[in-house]
TrEMBL record:
Residue windows of the WD repeats: 76-116, 117-158, 239-282
Cell compartment(s), UniProt: Nucleus, Nucleolus
Protein task: Negatively regulates the PAK1 kinase. PAK1 is a member of the PAK kinase family, which has been shown to play a positive role in the regulation of signaling pathways involving MAPK8 and RELA. PAK1 exists as an inactive homodimer, which is activated by binding of small GTPases such as CDC42 to an N-terminal regulatory domain. PAK1IP1 also binds to the N-terminus of PAK1, and inhibits the specific activation of PAK1 by CDC42. May be involved in ribosomal large subunit assembly.
Top-level taxon of the source organism: Eukaryota
SMART domains recorded: WD40
Biological process, per Gene Ontology: negative regulation of signal transduction; ribosome biogenesis
Gene3D superfamilies: YVTN repeat-like/Quinoprotein amine dehydrogenase
Disordered: region residues: 308-329, 349-372
Composition-biased stretches (Basic residues): 354-364
Record-given protein name: PAK1 interacting protein 1
Cellular component aspect of the GO annotation: nucleolus
Length: 372
């Protein structure tokens, strides 16, 4: 990981803030990197890949920023209404949802809209992509939770949850997911397709973030950050992070600890050091910055680490690339059977096996002959 990260936040005042933070220092200081009056309405969503940052707004537009070149990269115009949620899948695809009920899949190569799906009869309030990139979950104001097969762009399952959920998130391992309805946190297990537990937050939940596969950070309409152990199905830690309600929470991992980043209506972005031990202790404050704006959303841009190789390393790597690459591909791309619900399952493609070429047939003298 590079020795710095960029904190990118949007606000009601239509501005996007960028703060650079050096992570190789004892005391973390956030220095203003850019301020851009990006939109003509409040900024509603922001997401980051290893190169781009995209912001969505109530003005129905999505703006792209090339963080390596430090330039505005253009605008995406497809949704009719507020952009409610944005999420990158790796460096190749962006998914967006809006008040028009559309779920859009974008290619980051040419920024084309590959697929536009009418996902909900009402608004799309939240989306989450499975770590495999094969499935996505969406929730909307039509009181449904929908599972999407991203291989063919079709609905795999629709679950009536009887209430309007506003947040959905996969766990890092993709074996469970969380759904938020007002102040209620519902945890589902993918294998058994069942609701495993329900936890109540004292106030309406505004954002959640999986720190690892078992610890979930929850923030809401108060100044408290609460940590939930999804395996033990209970709250394990809480601490006062801000003076007013917390609007967003993100996280990233360092060598021996996790960094929690929170943004609040009080204008502050704060960074917290948290060790994910068996017995969780309250995190310590690493640094903070006052934007003086009413913040609405937050993302952490982490640049890809530069590759520094010597001539000797390059020769050694060249000799082992073929073998290691084959082993790694075999480990990552095994056939996966994902059981979505009791009567639904999607078989993910096994890309590790070479695909058989189809034999074309041609007509010869009124009869079909296989062309090799």
């Amino acid at each position: 990981m590079a020795a710095f990260v960029e904190l990118v936040a949007g606000c009601y005042e239509q501005i996007v803030f960028g703060y650079r933070v050096r992570t190789d220092q004892t005391e973390w200081t956030a220095k203003a990197d850019f301020t851009h009056h990006a939109h003509t309405a409040s900024v509603s969503a922001v997401a980051a890949s290893n190169r781009f940052v995209v912001t969505g707004s109530r003005d129905e537009t999505m703006l792209l920023y090339d963080m390596k070149k430090k330039v505005e990269h253009g605008a995406l115009l497809h949704h009719d209404g507020t952009i409610t949620c944005l999420e990158f899948y790796g460096a190749t695809h962006l998914l967006s949802g809006g008040e028009d009920g559309l779920l859009c899949v974008w290619s980051t190569k040419k920024w084309e809209c590959l697929k536009s799906i009418k996902a909900h009869r009402g608004h799309v309030t939240s989306l989450s992509v499975h770590p495999s990139g094969k499935l996505a979950l969406t929730v909307g104001t039509d009181k449904t939770l929908r599972t999407w097969n991203l291989i063919n762009g079709r609905s795999a399952f629709i679950k009536n949850i009887k209430q309007n959920a506003h947040i959905v998130r996969w766990s890092p391992d993709g074996d469970k997911y969380a759904v938020v309805i007002h102040d209620q946190l519902d945890l589902y297990d993918l294998q058994t397709a069942s609701l495993t537990s329900t936890l109540k937050n004292p106030k309406r939940i505004s954002a959640i973030n999986f720190l690892n596969n078992s610890i979930l950070a929850v923030v809401g309409d108060d100044e408290i950050v609460r940590l939930c152990d999804v395996a033990k199905e209970k709250w394990v830690c809480e601490f006062k992070a801000h003076e007013t309600r917390v609007k967003a929470v993100e996280s990233f991992k360092m060598t021996d600890h996790c960094v929690l980043v929170t943004a609040s209506n009080d204008g502050f972005i704060k960074m917290w050091k948290l060790r994910l031990n068996e017995e969780l202790e309250c995190p310590t404050l690493l640094g903070e910055v006052n934007t003086t704006a009413r913040l609405t959303c937050l993302a952490v841009w982490k640049p890809s680490a530069p590759q520094h190789t010597t001539e000797k390393d390059a020769k050694g790597a060249e000799a082992t690339t073929s073998q290691d690459g084959a082993e790694e591909a075999g480990a990552l791309l095994k056939t996966k059977r994902v059981r979505i619900f009791t009567h639904e399952e999607v078989i993910l493609e096994d890309d590790s096996k070479p695909k058989k070429k189809r034999r074309k047939k041609r007509k010869v003298g009124g009869q079909q002959e296989e062309a090799k």
